[in-house]
Every structure is written in C-alpha cells, then in structure tokens.
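Hey all, quick one. A colleague (J.T.) asked me to put the flavin-adenine dinucleotide job into the tracker so the inputs and the structure tokens live in one place instead of scattered across chat threads. No bug as far as I know, just bookkeeping. Sequence used:
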Amino acid sequence: MMSLWFCENKMKKIEVVVAGGGFAGISFIEGMGGGADDVSITLVDPSPDSIFRPLLPDVIAGKVRLEHCRYSLPEYCRSRRVRFLEKAASGLEGETRLVLDDGTGLDFDYLVVACGADPEYHGNQSARKHAFTLYSAQDAARLSATINAVLEKGEATSFVVVGGGYTGLETATALKYRIRKRVGREAAGRFPVKVAELAPRILAGLSDTIAGPAREEVRRLGIEVITSAGLGEIGEDWIKINGKRISPAVTIWSAGVSGVDFLTTLPFEKDKKGRIKVNSRLHSPGREDIFVLGDCASFESGGSPLRMAVHFSLAQGKIASGNLLGRLNDLSPHSYHSVDYGYLVPLASGKAWGKVLGIRVGGRIGSILHYLMSVYRSWGMRNRWGVVKDLLVRR
Ligand SMILES: Cc1cc2nc3c(=O)[nH]c(=O)nc-3n(C[C@H](O)[C@H](O)[C@H](O)COP(=O)(O)OP(=O)(O)OC[C@H]3O[C@@H](n4cnc5c(N)ncnc54)[C@H](O)[C@@H]3O)c2cc1C
C-alpha cells in the first residue's frame, strides 16, 4: 500500500538534484533509469565532460587520447531525460535549496552530493599557484602542452612530481615514458624526472611485497626518488627541496586530496580530509533527503574511511538510487556494505602491482587488468573503442 506521503506527492514531480557528474553521479542517474514522468532530475557540474581520471596519466604518457577520457554530460543527459546545467554547486539556502555559483538556486526534494575531490596543498600557497595538477581535462591538456614546449625548446629541465603515492608514481613514469618516446633514451637525460616524497619511503601505505617491486621498477626507469623531502617554496619554473633549488623545473603536485570547497559550506560532520561522514545509507545523519557519494563521502569501514576509488563511487551511486526508488515506492532502504575489489599501482612501463579480489598481482598481468578495468568502466562505446584503439596502436 502506498503511503499517504507518496499519494500527496504524486501531484507534483519529485525534484532530484545531482551535484557532480563523475562516477558516483552518473551511476546514481543510471540506477534511477534517468528522469521519469514523476521524477525530475537535474545534474549540475561546472565541467561539460565527465572525466575518466584513472587514464589521465596515460594521456600524459601519450598512450591514450584525451578525447577518449571525456564523456559529454549534455549529450548523456539528453539521452536520459535529465536536465543539465553547466554550473557548480556553491552552498545551501535553508534546508531544501541548492545555491549555484552564478547566484541562482534549485529547490530539491532530494539532493545527491557527488562532487569528487580536489588537490590538497597542505597550506603550501606557492604550490597552489605554480604547480601543475592532474585532475581535469584542462590539467592534462595544460601539462601535455608544457611538456611539448619544454622538449621543443631543448633546455635541460627537471620534471618534479611531489608525492610518491599511487598517482604520483603513475604520473612520474608517464612523464618518463613520454620524454623517452619523444626525444630518445639518450637525450632524455637532459630532462630528469624526480619524485619528492615527504615520508621516508614511497608507497609508504602498502606492504613491501607489493610496494617493493614497484619501487624497484621506478628505480630501473631512472627516476630519482627524494625521500623525507623538506619541501620549500615553488616558483613558476623552480622548486626548493631540502634547501636546494632545482631550476628550471616543472612541478606536478600529487600530494593528496581533500574535499571540494563546496563541502566546507555544508553544515555536516567531516573527517580530516574534509569529506562528509556518512551512515550506512549514505546520508549525513539527520538528513535523509541528502545522499553523499563517492570521494565526497567518508564511509567508515574496518575503523578507517574508505579510500577514494572508482568502484566504491559506482557502488554507492547504485545503492543510493535503489534506496530513493525504494522510498518512492514505500520500500525499506538497504544499507551500503563496501566490497573492496582491490587496487593497482599502474606504471607507464606496462607493469602494475597491487591486489585484485584479494590476490596479489604484479608485472604485465597487473597492467593488463588495469586497462581491462579502465575500458570496462569507461562511459560509452565510443570511448571504450577509442581507448582500445589507442592502446593497441600505441601512438
Ligand atoms: C590521476 C588519477 C588517477 C586515478 N586512478 C585511479 C585508479 O586507477 N583506480 C581507481 O579506482 N581510482 C583512481 N582514481 C580515483 C578516482 O578517479 C576517484 O576516486 C573517482 O573519480 C571518484 O568518483 P566521484 O564520482 O566521487 O568523483 P569524480 O569522478 O571526481 O567526479 C566529480 C564530478 O563533480 C564535479 N564537481 C566538482 N565540484 C563541483 C561542484 N561544486 N558542483 C557540481 N559539480 C562539481 C566535477 O567536475 C566532476 O565531474 C584516480 C584519480 C586521479 C586524480
């Protein structure tokens, strides 16, 4: 039997606003089956494209074309009866109105917060101003253009990646790969790639059985690793590490992530990284009308928040949409139980190390698994085929 609440609301459309069209946002919309006669969905995102971030290092390596990592949100929304607004969520007004960056607002019955994460600068303003990052299509295009310009000019220049975690090492090996491919192994010596890590070891969070071979591969590729790096100021074409100025240098910042600015405006409890703490139904406690998903959500599993990864975002989008459809049909909600399929540290030399379904994998097999998952999880056939072709043709 339908609830009185639902009968009353049958008169008007349920307004659902989704902030963020990344993995979690699209997974949510897919789970809803798009917009319907009784449910209106609006997606807001400041970018017209959903970006497949796991392949951005491959764009830097020159293995995958950037266009195959972009998925047009306006086109997608048209096909799903969803309204798309190319705007950013910037705050809440009262309880049920989302304010956008142009000062307009959207009233909602349900809000989905799925805005991803931003680079964490740890208070280093010079890094914010001068370092490159690798989060968006613009970032990838800007860094690629800079690499080409440096190589064309020919002046000896260092490429310094700050951060020796997964993405830092992916990026460093991608730089090495591109430089060698472009200027040859010998001339590549004029463009050294360095990794500056604040901790005493790179990949410090991983067990030695997985991190060991990855570290060895980084060394074999001729990438200089500076551990316990005391990071000083960063300028437009230089960086100071342990009091020593490296110049000229292109600095790429890969030293962690935190919640996007929009989250700071929301009056919900956050974790140390500024992500919103959510309960098992993916709400901040007390706000059953707001779902928080993906990198924005801090979901406790085994005593610590889940790491940021694509498969968690996709699964959370599915659970949240199922629960919203259930609620509209008077069904009890399901709890989210995180299932960790594992992780890989893919290096541009065509090897990857990590754990998949609890099994340790490494070398070429790891890399093949990374690309299979990337193709499988890309949105749209055009991008899937594009990535396959790029990888097989090896530009
Ligand atoms: C270089 C790199 C490599 C990675 N490799 C891997 C990997 O191999 N495997 C893996 O599992 N994970 C990887 N990750 C992490 C993975 O990309 C994220 O965990 C995943 O994208 C999170 O999905 P999401 O939907 O929460 O956010 P995202 O996919 O980041 O999407 C967020 C969306 O929100 C939009 N947005 C931002 N601010 C606002 C706002 N104020 N209002 C509205 N919209 C907004 C953004 O434009 C974006 O479209 C990688 C990340 C990076 C940066």
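Adding what we noticed when we looked at it: The first strand starts at residue 14 and ends at 19. Residues 19-25, 44-47, 50, 53-54, 56-57, 88-89, 114-116, 134-135, 167, 260, 262, 294-295, 308-311, 313 surround flavin-adenine dinucleotide (CB under 6 Å).
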